From TrEMBL:
<dbReference type="Pfam" id="PF12833">
    <property type="entry name" value="HTH_18"/>
</dbReference>
<dbReference type="InterPro" id="IPR050204">
    <property type="entry name" value="AraC_XylS_family_regulators"/>
</dbReference>
<dbReference type="GO" id="GO:0003700">
    <property type="term" value="F:DNA-binding transcription factor activity"/>
</dbReference>
<dbReference type="Pfam" id="PF02311">
    <property type="entry name" value="AraC_binding"/>
</dbReference>
<feature type="domain" description="HTH araC/xylS-type">
    <location>
        <begin position="186"/>
        <end position="284"/>
    </location>
</feature>
<dbReference type="InterPro" id="IPR037923">
    <property type="entry name" value="HTH-like"/>
</dbReference>
<dbReference type="InterPro" id="IPR009057">
    <property type="entry name" value="Homeodomain-like_sf"/>
</dbReference>
<keyword id="KW-0010">Activator</keyword>
<dbReference type="GO" id="GO:0043565">
    <property type="term" value="F:sequence-specific DNA binding"/>
</dbReference>
<dbReference type="InterPro" id="IPR003313">
    <property type="entry name" value="AraC-bd"/>
</dbReference>
<protein>
    <submittedName>
        <fullName>Arabinose operon regulatory protein</fullName>
    </submittedName>
</protein>
<keyword id="KW-0805">Transcription regulation</keyword>
<keyword id="KW-0804">Transcription</keyword>
<dbReference type="InterPro" id="IPR018060">
    <property type="entry name" value="HTH_AraC"/>
</dbReference>
<dbReference type="InterPro" id="IPR020449">
    <property type="entry name" value="Tscrpt_reg_AraC-type_HTH"/>
</dbReference>
<keyword id="KW-0238">DNA-binding</keyword>
Length: 315
């Protein structure tokens, strides 16, 4: 939907003077050495909206001097509003083809528009493989085609596709990739899980993984995000919720199974973490999946296959 009439402006978005008074405009800029588009884009005050572009052939150059950097096929750039635009074909490159989308974002897109790697507020993302390059290239083309279809809903459909593109860019950014845990932290998680009903201290866990208690505590918090005791409590509560829902086992026995000898203390911890008491949780979580059979029954699901990431084992 136009924000204002562009009648007094050029109608070619590739040429200087185009108003960009739209919520979304998309295209491809084919810059060839000495061709009609072979000039430097120079917008000292940037633009009102965002521009995301992707180099598909040749090489481009952004900025001059110490801030200068180059963009190659598979590189994405994100220019925020009012960010300086100064870019063109890189000297020595016979061409620079880049797909681009100018857009006004929806409010809830904000987290996907904060790229960690940037120079002078120009976000940079290098796609690591040909499959991703092909995926993003197709998304750019779909957005361009959809916006040009001329249907009543063309712009909204194009914006939906753009949302997908931004989410995918967020997903593939290096800072958003899942980080593998140190093998010793994984082993600590597995050891705790295998002995969840036992009151095992930090010293014993550290000896098991051949680290000092202080080093293990530091490494665990750094990689998992919480300290060992809090993580163990999380796992105990997760298992307790499962047992409360899946059986008629008395609450006192469940408390002992997950490492709390005192049922009243277990109930206090459970209420603090879950918001209701164990008995209230059982009443509101539906019929148990398995009946309680005897005081001597064993739980086959206690023999756990621990996931490699060493995190929420019972989720």
């Amino acid at each position: 939907m136009p924000l204002s009439s562009p009648e007094s402006q050029t109608l070619d978005p590739l040429m200087p003077g185009y108003s960009f008074n739209l919520y979304l405009v998309a295209g491809i800029t084919p810059i060839i050495e000495d061709g009609p588009l072979d000039f430097v884009i120079d917008r000292p005050k940037g633009m009102q909206g965002y521009i995301i572009n992707m180099t598909v052939a040749g090489q481009g150059k952004v900025f001059d001097g110490e801030d200068a950097f180059y963009t190659d096929p598979g590189d994405l750039l994100l220019f925020a509003p009012e960010t300086v635009h100064y870019y063109g074909r890189a000297p020595g490159s016979p061409n620079w083809y880049h797909r681009w989308i100018y857009f006004r974002p929806r409010a809830y897109w904000a987290p996907w528009l904060k790229w960690q790697d940037h120079t002078r507020q120009v976000g940079k993302l290098r796609l690591p493989d040909k499959q991703l390059v092909a995926e993003f290239d197709e998304l750019f083309q779909q957005i361009d085609r959809t916006h040009r279809e001329g249907r009543v809903t063309s712009e909204e459909l194009a914006i939906n596709l753009l949302e997908r593109l931004l989410i995918r860019a967020y997903e593939v950014s290096p800072e958003n990739q899942p980080k593998s845990l140190d093998a010793r932290v994984q082993e600590a998680c597995q050891f705790i899980t295998r002995n969840l009903g036992q009151d095992i201290g930090l010293d014993e866990i550290a000896r098991h993984v051949c680290l000092s208690p202080s080093r293990l505590a530091h490494l665990f918090r750094e990689q998992v995000g919480v300290n060992i005791l809090r993580w163990r409590e999380d796992q105990r509560i997760i298992l307790a919720k499962h047992l409360l829902h899946s059986s008629r086992t008395p609450i006192a026995r469940i408390a002992g199974t997950v490492g709390y000898e005192d049922q009243l203390y277990f109930s206090r911890v459970f209420r603090k973490r879950v918001g209701v008491s164990p008995s209230e949780f059982r009443k509101t979580s539906g019929e148990p999946l398995y009946p309680y059979q005897s005081a001597n029954m064993t739980w086959p699901h206690m023999e756990l296959d621990v996931p490699d990431n060493g995190l929420e084992f019972y989720l």
